[in-house]
Design a protein that fits this description.
- The complex is a heterodimer of chains A (about 500) and B (about 475).
- Chain A has 20 helices and 2 strands.
- Chain A is mainly α and about 500 residues long.
- Chain A has one domain (about 5-495).
- Helix content of chain B is about 75%, strand content about 0%.
- The longest helix of chain B is centred in the middle third of the chain and has 32 residues, at about 150-180.
- Chain B has a two-stranded antiparallel sheet with strand order 1-2.
- Chain B is built from 21 helices and 2 strands.
- In chain B, α4 runs antiparallel to α20 (about 440-460) and α11 crosses α14.
- The chains are: A mainly alpha (about 500), B mainly alpha (about 475).
- The interface between A and B is medium-sized, with 32 and 32 residues.
């Protein structure tokens, strides 16, 4: 048994362990133990990875394992990680761990909730460790479908509508994706050899440019839907706003990164020629996402909607940077995935905790929370500052890298787009500071709010854990960007 | 003529033996309370016999063909029928049907014999006899609840349509016979080399009869009414076993007889697939009755199966047979739930399933898994079978049709999720759900088989690999 498959096996064992649970305490125990094991595993993987790289192992993917699954179609279960997957796995396990604490008192049906949540995380982990297109697709869809019940059963507001919209739009994206993957598969023998789903083998094949022109946009749009690319972003605000706390955290924090990761790993890396030709179309679309998302956030009054639109803007920046097709911007994009994942999870966790106390998310109905719940409020300010790119926190390093990389293009088109995208930072500052000023400071207006309590221990675990990560990434960005940059060396066709 | 001609027909012979034993039991036994275990046990034995290794080949100079793939298809049909029999008990023990339950088993087995002959036919005469043997008792089965208005009406509708489609098909066969002077498949394919107006017309007429059976649009008008009116257990049989046999026969005739007309029949099937999937989906979305809903869903599923047939390759054949198998276990799991709820409470509306998870969590879970498998959601086998069908179509470069089919999977997911939503999320009014239902041991066993199929078929590649190794195609 290989090490990487543990990331799938541990959650499966958790699912089995949930079955005999009788009450919420047992469910919590299993969830905490399981997610801690996953967290430890991902740190162990990180150190093992660093040790291998320091020892001079320069293979593209490390810790690979390969099992033939369907010989007729040459489908393998094959796993392997490079630096990008390692940091993504780390992000996922952090979010799953903190998400467990954020849904400590989930009601009703705690057992079912955690089972669906863990099923979702199987999809996420499996996606990041796979290097076979078929298994990637399989895990991708495994991650999508639990969202329907998680939002539909435990959500708030227009949950049925949002759940259906989210599921159908994402599955629509995966319909594009299946077509794209089949297109890649049937052209993977273009240089002779057998048809294959293996990413590394396809990476060596030169897919004919006419085929790339058809299948690149399909694949990119397929993943772009999950990355909330304009105009396919509309599922995101409704979905995130209706989802329960842990699901919003996991979805905005990790699942949307599947989109960016897939765009990078499959669409861009495997079809670089078409990427160079068509990048401008998608740059325009993602540029719109960046700015439009930020403007959208200004207009919202619901805390979750604000954050959801902010996610559209920040995730748009991920795709935007990937499409700049150079090493610096791509490094920035991966760092932005990590940074946004942590910070948006922090936001959603905090919003969930505030909502659990005030029973409203409308910013017009809350004031002076700093006096009532100082811990949560201070954390909210920190999250906000990370989001608007304060140096020392994760947002700054990521966005800085992206914009430096983007501006390195010496043609007018890219530079103008970069300038437009940079403006989103200003708009972000507006909506973040507006919310902070409105709900945290000033006099308490609703007298009922005075009786509310501050965070309890399990909420603090969740929040502090995330803040530590955000700050660590902001203060010591070098080692993360080294890990990422070390994995971009083989992509000469993409970055010429 | 020697004995080996008959030895090849071991599945037919063992089915006849089961049939005769059941007739004798039905006629002479005084106490018939063991009917269900006897019938299920004998049929399980018969199913096992089908899996034993045996010769393959042709008998009666090519009239009857029993290759590996035919045996595999018959085994799939057997597994399906076994599940149907296991599920039948909760319906058969009701007052109106208890005393005539022997007829149920006998009629079902005789239609199954007809399907065997269809599957194994190497000659249009045997094929036609098989088709009729499968059709006529089926009408009696559909009208089994004869005091129910709907059931009688459904039986009549099925009968008229079956006869009508047989007539069209016979016309097509007679045109073919007039052109080439033989009814043997192998002789025909040698004679039908160049498509002419006459032979293409004959082909379309011949196939039309099968399209009726598979209920592809625009030959689907009988489906919803018949499915709704027939006893739920019979609907399950009709929509999986009967359809599966007809689909395989269609493929076998297209590959064996019309192998030289690939371009022509691909053009015909292109449109049939597209409109079957689309119309089936669009109508399924609007259904309130779960049996009508499953009827339209089965029309759309048939479209996906024919998509695999259309590719004309060995992958197409293995994907088709694999899809039939996965579709059978998934659809029978869904029908098992519908059947028990219909038998115990008489409720068949989708809105009756509201909040089912609170009162009957196990039934709701089975139904959910079945819906996900039908919708093609991993980790169920439905995902794998859909993906293989798409691969078969992609291999022939049918990307446009593939795209339209993929868009349709999203639409189909919408209505499958509506059922899941009803069971798990319910409605705002909090309508009281169906009271807890105790299912009998047979039903539980059938669910175990179905769920094992849904999860095991996908993760273990062995079955697909085996089907792939015994498939053949006419294109690369």
């Amino acid at each position: 048994m290989d090490f990487l498959s543990l990331f799938v096996i541990v959650p499966v064992l958790m699912l089995v362990a949930f079955l005999p649970c009788k009450n919420i305490k047992q469910v919590r125990t299993v969830a905490v133990i399981g997610s801690s094991v996953l967290l430890i595993l991902s740190f162990v993987l990180l150190f093992m990875f660093l040790a291998e790289r320091n020892a001079g192992n320069t293979a593209e993917m490390l810790f690979t394992a390969d099992y033939l699954w369907y010989p007729a179609l040459n489908i393998h279960y094959s796993v392997g990680v490079d630096g990008i997957s390692v940091v993504m796995l780390l992000l996922s396990s952090i979010i799953v761990f903190t998400g467990t604490f954020a849904s400590w008192n989930i009601n009703p049906l705690p057992k079912d909730f955690f089972m669906w949540l863990i099923l979702l995380s199987i999809g996420v982990f499996g996606f990041f460790i796979s290097i076979d297109l078929f298994t990637m697709l399989l895990f991708y869809e495994v991650a999508l479908i639990p969202m329907y019940l998680l939002i539909g059963l435990w959500g708030t507001g227009r949950k049925e509508y949002s759940a259906m919209k989210l599921t159908l739009m994402l599955m629509g994206g995966s319909a594009f994706l299946i077509l794209g993957i089949l297109g890649i598969y049937f052209n993977s023998a273009a240089d002779g050899g057998a048809l294959t789903f293996n990413l590394l083998e396809i990476g060596k094949v030169h897919i004919p440019i006419e085929m790339q022109r058809i299948f690149f946009p399909l694949t990119f749009v397929g993943f772009g839907v999950l990355g909330a690319m304009f105009p396919f972003h509309t599922w995101s605000p409704d979905g995130h706003a209706s989802a329960p706390t842990a699901v919003s955290m996991l979805h905005a924090g990790v699942l949307m990164k599947l989109g960016g990761y897939g765009c990078f790993r499959i669409a861009l890396s495997l079809m670089p020629d078409a990427a160079h030709e068509q990048a401008w179309i998608f740059l325009l679309l993602t540029g719109i996402s960046v700015v439009y998302g930020a403007f959208g956030a200004i207009h919202q009054t619901d805390l979750k909607y604000i954050n959801a639109y902010s996610s559209v803007s920040h995730c748009g920046l991920v795709l935007f940077a990937l499409l700049m097709l150079n090493e610096t911007a791509t490094t920035g994009a991966i760092m932005q995935m990590l940074s946004h994942g942590l910070m948006t999870a922090l936001f959603f966790a905090l919003i969930g905790m505030i909502y659990g106390r005030t029973h409203t998310r409308d910013i017009r109905e809350m004031q002076g929370l700093m006096r009532i719940m100082p811990f949560l409020s201070v954390c909210y300010v920190i999250a906000g500052l990370a989001s608007l790119g304060l140096p020392g926190l994760s947002g700054f390093v990521a966005e800085m890298t992206i914009f430096v990389g983007s501006f390195a293009h010496d043609d007018l088109f890219h530079r103008i787009l970069t300038i437009v995208a940079v403006s989103s930072i200003v708009i972000t500052a507006v909506y973040i500071l507006r919310v902070v000023g409105k709900i945290l400071y000033g006099e308490v207006q609703d007298k009922h709010h005075l009786e509310l309590t501050d965070a309890v221990w399990y909420e603090k675990v969740s929040v502090v854990g995330l803040i530590v990560c955000v700050a660590a990434m902001g203060c010591f960005p070098g080692w993360i960007s080294d890990i990422i940059r070390g994995s971009l060396g083989g992509l000469t066709a993409l970055f010429n | 003529m020697d004995l080996t001609n008959y030895l090849l027909m071991r599945q037919e012979i063992s089915l006849m033996v089961v049939f005769l034993i059941l007739i004798i039991y039905d006629l002479f036994a005084t106490d018939k309370k063991f009917f269900q275990p006897v019938a299920c046990g004998l049929f399980a034995l018969h199913t096992v016999i089908g899996f034993l290794p045996w010769y393959v080949g042709e008998s009666f100079s090519g009239m009857y063909v029993s290759g590996d793939i035919e045996v595999a298809v018959k085994n799939i049909l057997n597994i399906g029928v076994l599940i149907v029999f296991l599920q039948a008990n909760s319906w058969l023990v009701k007052d109106g049907t208890l005393e005539k339950r022997g007829e149920y088993y006998l009629l079902t087995l005789s239609t199954l014999l007809g399907m065997y002959l269809m599957v194994s036919a190497g000659n249009f005469m045997l094929f036609y006899i098989g088709l009729e043997t499968a059709s006529l008792p089926m009408a009696a089965l559909i009208a089994f609840d004869k005091y129910t208005h709907n059931s009688a009406e459904a039986g009549a509708k099925y009968m008229f349509n079956a006869v009508f489609s047989s007539a069209i098909m016979l016309f097509g066969i007679s045109l073919l016979y007039g052109t080439v002077g033989t009814l043997y498949f192998t002789d025909m394919v040698a004679a039908l080399t160049n498509p002419t107006a006459l032979t293409v017309m004959a082909m379309v007429f011949t196939l039309a009869g099968l399209f009726f059976k598979i209920s592809l649009v625009p030959f689907h008008f009988w489906t919803a009414d018949t499915y709704e009116g027939a006893p739920t257990n019979v609907t399950a049989y009709l929509s999986t076993i009967s359809k599966g046999a007809a689909v395989f026969t269609l493929m076998s005739i297209l590959y064996r007889v019309f192998g030289n007309f690939v371009t022509e029949w691909q053009a015909v099937l292109w449109w049939l697939v597209l409109i079957s999937i689309t119309i089936g989906n669009l109508f399924a979305m609007r259904q309130k009755n779960i049996k009508r809903f499953l009827a339209f869903s089965s029309i759309s599923q048939a479209g996906y199966i024919v998509l695999a047939i259309m590719s004309g390759s060995a992958w197409g054949m293995s994907s088709t047979v694999y899809y039939i198998l996965v579709y059978a276990v998934s659809n029978l799991a869904a029908f098992g739930v519908v059947n028990i709820i219909d038998s115990r409470t008489g409720k068949v509306k989708i809105s009756d399933y509201n909040n089912l998870y609170q009162t009957n969590p196990k039934l709701a879970l089975v139904m959910m898994i079945a819906m996900f498998s039908l919708g093609g959601i991993p980790p169920t086998a439905g995902f794998f079978s859909k993906f293989f069908v798409f691969t078969a179509a992609g291999q022939q470069g049918e990307y446009v049709l593939l795209f339209l089919a993929l868009v349709n999977t999203v639409i189909s997911l919408y209505y499958y999720l509506l059922v899941v939503k009803a069971m798990f999320i319910g409605d705002k009014e909090g309508t009281p759900a169906i009271e807890p239902i105790r299912s009998d041991i047979y039903l539980k066993l059938s669910f175990v088989i179905c769920l094992a199929g849904i999860f095991v078929l996908g993760f273990t590649s062995g079955i697909y690999g085996y089907l792939e190794s015994i498939s053949f195609g006419i294109l690369k």
